[in-house]
Amino acid sequence: MKKLILLIAFLLPVLLYGQNTFKYRVDANGGLTIGGAAKTEIDSAKVVGTHFAVWDGAANYFAISDTALFAKLAGPTFTGTVVLPATTSIGTVDNTEISYVNGVTSAIQTQFGAKMDTGNNVAIEDDVVMLLDTTQLFVFGAGGGNAGDTSVFTTSTIYGSFFNESRDTLMITSLRVVMLGDATDTLSVDILWDANLNDGTPTELNTNPFPVNSITSGDEDTSFANQKIPPDVWVWCETPGVTAGKKPTYFNAQISGYIKRTE
Description:
The protein is mainly β. It is built from three helices and 15 strands.
């Protein structure tokens, strides 16, 4: 009897300690229970003060742990090193796009800035081959420089045409015209375009035709009412201004510019 009393006296503190310290147990038949809460009662969990608690099946909520130890579903704050899955996305940026910055060791904008020569306003063509450059786009003309060739110059003559087959816009930066003949010869030149060749209401490069009288290096126009020739149009050249007795024997009208992706 004394031995039994001594055994109970020895085990009682251990049992009490275990009851107060190890508050989690697994019920092999009913699943997970916490304290006195059955598996079906865990749905009654809530935050009490700063602690996460579960209904204990009797009359109390049983505190499990400080909520500061858990990340919130909305707006969580992490510390230390956080390892995310390779499939992680951020908003509309998917995991493939996120992987593009793999290997970047410093600010991207700073690296671009270092490539720029800011000392003399040189653009990035020093480091990148430019895809756009100004060049001649088309040449219109008439006559062969012979005395009788003056007859080809009329207000209704078309001096050549082309169709802008590309998907891109032609940006006109220069119209240069030169003639052969007498120094008093003169023409007024216009570049026009429309879906239909020689349409009655085309778009014009200039509101007023460009006057020309140079028989040496040519006259150049760089200011236009419309400088963008869109895709899928015919482009042609006319001379709305022709003066009898002042017609050249030859003329050449060159448009220059660059190609721009249609917006």
